[in-house]
Amino acid sequence: MADDERAAKNQRRFAVGFGVTDLLSAVLLYVGVFEGLPTRYWLVDLAAALTMTLFAGAGVGLLAKTHWGPWVARVASAVALALGLGLVSTLALTASYLSGIYGPVGRGGALILSLIAALALPYLVLLPAAQLVWLGPWRNTGETTGSAPAGS
Amino acid sequence: MLRPLLRFIGIYFFALAVACALVKREYSLHPSPEGEVIASVWKDGILIERVVVADKSVRDARIEKALAESKGELVFETVIADSPVLKWTELVLGISFVPGRDGLRARVGDTTTYLTPDDLLSRQLYDHGLHIQTLSLALGLDTAGLAQLLSERLKTNPEQVLETASLRRIRVERHTSSERPRITADNLNRDEVKEAIVAGARYLAREVSNQGRFRYTVQAPANRELPGYDWPRHAGATYFLAQVAGLTHDPLLADACRRAASLLRGGALSSCGGLPCVGDEPVVALGSSALALLAFAEIVERNIDPGYRAIVIDMARFVRSQQRPDGEFMHDYDRRAGRPIDRQGLYYSSEATLALARAYPITQDPADLDGAVRGLRHLVGPAWSFFGDRYYFGEEHWTCQAIAALWPYAPDAKALDFCLRWQAFGRKLQQREGDSYFDADGAIGVGPVVTPRLTPVASRCEAAVATLDVARRSGVSAEELAVLDAQLRRALALLVRQQFRPGLRHLFKSPADVHGAMPGSEVDWELRIDYTQHAGSAMVRWLEVIAGGA
Known about the structure:
Chain A has 152 residues and is mainly α. Chain A is built from 4 helices and no strands. The longest helix of chain A has 35 residues. Chain A is elongated. Chain B is of the alpha+beta class and 550 residues long. In chain B, the strands form 5 sheets. In chain B, strands 1, 2, 3, 4, 5, 6 and 9 form a 7-stranded antiparallel sheet that branches. In chain B, helix 12 packs parallel to helix 14. The radius of gyration of chain B is 26 Å and the shape is globular. The mean pLDDT of chain B is 94. Classes of the chains: A mainly alpha (152), B alpha+beta (550). At the A-B interface, helix 3 and helix 4 of A face helix 1 of B.
């Protein structure tokens, strides 16, 4: 019984931790894309808006212990992971292309792009991957599953 | 869940690394040991004839005929390497060519044509692609212009030519009859710098009309004036003409200087609260008057026209009237309301400080000296005080000139320390030979795909000369003087190399008209008057105070 309580407490701590991180990621995405980028490009804006909304939903859901919170967190993590890997691929391939075209000076550009990739990695690859691991396998039960706690 | 995910991510990164290696190898230049030689005859910036030959010794009848008939210049461009390029998207295509170095080979069916760097420079297509207004940056080829040029050569529709043509990037080496030895920091000398100064001043002198107005911006290949005008830059160019007229005693330069100055003192002059100021708009900017004061002071000091002494005194009063008690300047004056507007932008505070410092020996008014001293204290104190101010510096380049102008009357060790740190920061940004495909040594670059601009180099040189001058007089260590001197020489050598003396004259409609001008960059051949002024003023001061007099 005590073990169950301890496990439930641990799970709650994880839920709060991931919930807060999801909310921070949503804010960071908003600041980075909608305040930081100098021009608007619908492809980037759409992807950022979608991910931001999902992260915000996941954060609220996990913190408020809703039954849909873990489900939204899974979707948010999967989408963010896909976008994150896509972003890393695009940046890495662009850096390689520039390095091919511009030779030595391309190394500077490659470094900048690698730095951007490194900055994006924690939020768009590591965080969603860790959250997916915590949430466990995706089962069609209609309830939260795996190691994650029930929402209510 | 953990293991499959880690496996997936591991496989992903491995595949990505392989893909990156393949992309880099594919799109790097592949040497062409027996590459084509593109022989072109150019006359007045127009391509008269072009033939592709196996090597330079082969004389083609068409080339001989074109040379005989046009009296043009024969230029060889040898393809030394090539690589594929991505055509999607246009942005990617645009950044797929190193500016000034790469051209392209295009094939449609059995027809092959070449767009060489000379073709692309002649049309000014490099660095005219993507414009990022917020960063004041333009990079990549202008792909619309590229399509137009390509369609003219291939006689096809410009809207489809980029889709239908097969494109390869080519790297070429150019050989012309007007090549001159490369100027470097090691072989830079006083004679070379003096020639550069005189050529620059004569260029600006030719650009001043009888009414005293400059051709403000000129597109060099077509020798066409572009729209726009600016009084601070007019004043700056006048200041440079005064410097060189004083240095050379050339009457043509002195005349041009007087014409430009008389417009500043005449048609451009207004009244701001009973004092003279430059600009006829309802709200005038302090910078116009500050730089006009600088030019007038130079004209008096160099004895070009002592009659400007009176306006130096009056305009110094106007500049002082814009100063706040803490030393900062109010940058605008509302002529309708008859009062200053306390708002600030870039440069004007330091321009005003320098102008007062230069006016003081003429006016002998202690208030001018006091204004300059307080302005300088503010510039190197509260104006540059924030978290991280030891690690970041801006483009502002007048402050250090003000320090040198004030040093005989009010030496300021804190200000010198500021300038030495500013120069150290600039040294970190300065590129070296081999850092890029561009003419890099001494340049200040902002990224891998943007050609370094020359004006930031020139304005930093003006400040570096002033800093080195003061540092020499104030016991700064020999090691620090040596690195500062080397930094300055590398930057000056770049400016001397890039000045149009004569430049790629075969690409200019009128080479004589643009001789001596300083371009915006190695590939941006818009000639604005301040580009030549900043470079020229730096060289004048280097010649006078560093290289042991004129």
